[in-house]
Amino acid sequence: MDHPTQFDVIVIGGGHAGTEAALAAARMGCATLLLTHSVDTLGQMSCNPAIGGIGKSHLVREIDALGGAMAKATDQAGIQFRVLNSRKGPAVRATRAQADRVLYRNAIRTIIEAQEGLQVFQQAVDDLIIENGSVQGVVTQTGLRFKAPRVILTTGTFLGGQMHIGLSKSAGGRAGDPPSNTLAARLRELPLRVERLKTGTPPRLDARSIDLESLEKQWGDEPRPVMSFLGDRSQHPDQRCCWVAYTNQHTHDIIRDGLDRSPLYTGVIEGEGPRYCPSIEDKIQRFADKNSHQVFVEPEGLSTNELYPNGISTSLPFDVQMELVRSISGFENAHITRPGYAIEYDFFDPRDLLSSLETRTISGLYFAGQINGTTGYEEAAAQGLLAGINAALAIREEDPWCPRRDEAYLGVLVDDLITLGTKEPYRMFTSRAEHRLLLREDNADLRLTEQGRKLGLVDDERWSQFSEKRDLIDAEQSRLLRSFVHPGSPSAETLSSKLDKPLSREYSYAELLKRPELEYADIAALDSQGIHHEQASLQVSIQAKYAGYIDRQQGEIDRVRRYEGLSLPSDMDYTQVLGLSHEVRDKLVAQKPETLGRASRIPGVTPAAISLLLVHMKRRQ
Ligand code: FAD
């Protein structure tokens, strides 16, 4: 049988963006090829073995709600699960899992290999076939040609990758992997803006050389959270403890003394690093008044002694790394198994992309993941999923899809990137979403699974579990509105110990649930008719308790939406818009926003300019 060379969609790169992109396109019925350096590194975590966290778990749940792989793989690989911000409001609560690196990779590979319509081929891509401004396929390192009208590029940190340890540098996509230099050179010939960014990773330690007994212990939460909406605790492997250590003044002195051999501080590295995940040398410079920084000591997996000291990412020379590690209490005899390093790589200005993640200048070519200036597995996977969806929609000759900012963090991520661009590795935070009370991690399925089903991403099993949950929530909410507690009744007696004062009138269960002193379990205990579905009862509770805020936020969204989605034609002549300043006009011409909402978020485009545009568009109609 001939090796097939013609596909609907080709995905380059088998990292977090690439695997979700390939799975999404194949789930939507496209003949899909995933080309990657090594089949063994599908779903490889380049840096810390953890998924989720604030803002990031929101993305993971959205990927899951749309049928993606990341949350499922996390449930099969997670060796410690916690809910961060558990005492704060539901908008900022976030699930985080420490993952076994090998189990995670295996879980992703198993999902990929089980996906119908998806083929994997191990080979580096060196060139794109572009004809008349549209992509037609790719050429691999050995000269093999694969054709497809849609190509998704997800090459992560590999394009022109340059690794630094002290003043010594070497070419690489990440430690142990080659860079993609031929492809990087080819891409630099295309009409796309390209710049450099950098990121870094800490040295890894041998657990047998660390005095773990002397460190602060940190266990996972009980009851143990799950990552996927379909997740089940019984899938989780054995759970592990993490620890917390601290840098001290001596550590900081060692780092300061080594800065003259730091690639960051001697100007060898030019790319901007991640502001929210800085190296330890950055931290001691930026927070010079702090005597100590936390180091989270996390196991890399169940079958290894390696530990990941989260918080001391560094590119200082190895001898300085050794000294700084050993200055930390509990690490006095530490053996480093792998040195920390920084990596610089090419990324493309995401303002050159449409909201479908297709490039504006080369039809059929999509970019997703770290190549767009983001950092993090979750941000990459979310973009990959979206690019896969849109490549498949294009094959079906249907309109592209991207959720709005008030529908999903995925919408916030893409809108931020394509409207504002980025000068430093972009990571997601709940603070980036103006409607975060609506975009909770707990309701991602209620926001997105129906859309996922329409797109063809959600299989029957997920759909039936989701439908059952949604129906339970609806039924329980109506029951709570119809059920009452009367003053002096046995139910009122039962509640009295929890309430500040006795009930003065008849209250519906729904009204009672709004009270901060009462939980859903208290209401459910009043009769035997409450629901026992963990996720559904959580929804009933959150939706009741935050109803006022949620309604207010929805009202704001409805007001803004009136103009947010108004399309601005790509050939719009901004010189015809009366009253626009030169500066605003230049920005609009340069960025060609697709909608009025996007125009409003371009820095420097004032509300007054938006009104002028609105008037102009109304006149045109
Ligand atoms: P990657 O996961 O990098 O995957 C790219 C894939 O493309 C790989 O499989 C590669 O083999 C393949 N590939 C590349 N070129 C080609 C080609 N020409 N042909 C075929 N296949 C190709 N994130 C954080 O959130 N916090 C951190 O502290 C952090 N530190 C990091 C430190 C280091 C040293 C590195 C390397 C990354 C770090 N990251 C960090 C980033 C995180 O690893 C990435 O955000 C994430 O992996 C990006 O996913 P991706 O799918 O875009 O790319």
Automatic annotation (TrEMBL):
<comment type="similarity">
    <text>Belongs to the MnmG family.</text>
</comment>
<keyword id="KW-0963">Cytoplasm</keyword>
<dbReference type="InterPro" id="IPR047001">
    <property type="entry name" value="MnmG_C_subdom"/>
</dbReference>
<keyword id="KW-0274">FAD</keyword>
<keyword id="KW-0285">Flavoprotein</keyword>
<feature type="binding site">
    <location>
        <position position="370"/>
    </location>
    <ligand>
        <name>FAD</name>
    </ligand>
</feature>
<feature type="binding site">
    <location>
        <position position="125"/>
    </location>
    <ligand>
        <name>FAD</name>
    </ligand>
</feature>
<feature type="binding site">
    <location>
        <position position="180"/>
    </location>
    <ligand>
        <name>FAD</name>
    </ligand>
</feature>
<keyword id="KW-0520">NAD</keyword>
<dbReference type="InterPro" id="IPR036188">
    <property type="entry name" value="FAD/NAD-bd_sf"/>
</dbReference>
<dbReference type="InterPro" id="IPR040131">
    <property type="entry name" value="MnmG_N"/>
</dbReference>
<dbReference type="InterPro" id="IPR026904">
    <property type="entry name" value="MnmG_C"/>
</dbReference>
<dbReference type="Pfam" id="PF21680">
    <property type="entry name" value="GIDA_C_1st"/>
</dbReference>
<dbReference type="InterPro" id="IPR004416">
    <property type="entry name" value="MnmG"/>
</dbReference>
<dbReference type="Pfam" id="PF13932">
    <property type="entry name" value="SAM_GIDA_C"/>
</dbReference>
<feature type="binding site">
    <location>
        <begin position="13"/>
        <end position="18"/>
    </location>
    <ligand>
        <name>FAD</name>
    </ligand>
</feature>
<feature type="domain" description="tRNA uridine 5-carboxymethylaminomethyl modification enzyme C-terminal subdomain">
    <location>
        <begin position="544"/>
        <end position="615"/>
    </location>
</feature>
<comment type="function">
    <text>NAD-binding protein involved in the addition of a carboxymethylaminomethyl (cmnm) group at the wobble position (U34) of certain tRNAs, forming tRNA-cmnm(5)s(2)U34.</text>
</comment>
<dbReference type="InterPro" id="IPR049312">
    <property type="entry name" value="GIDA_C_N"/>
</dbReference>
<dbReference type="InterPro" id="IPR044920">
    <property type="entry name" value="MnmG_C_subdom_sf"/>
</dbReference>
<dbReference type="InterPro" id="IPR002218">
    <property type="entry name" value="MnmG-rel"/>
</dbReference>
<dbReference type="Pfam" id="PF01134">
    <property type="entry name" value="GIDA"/>
</dbReference>
<keyword id="KW-0819">tRNA processing</keyword>
<comment type="subunit">
    <text>Homodimer. Heterotetramer of two MnmE and two MnmG subunits.</text>
</comment>
<dbReference type="InterPro" id="IPR020595">
    <property type="entry name" value="MnmG-rel_CS"/>
</dbReference>
<feature type="binding site">
    <location>
        <begin position="273"/>
        <end position="287"/>
    </location>
    <ligand>
        <name>NAD(+)</name>
    </ligand>
</feature>
<protein>
    <recommendedName>
        <fullName>tRNA uridine 5-carboxymethylaminomethyl modification enzyme MnmG</fullName>
    </recommendedName>
</protein>
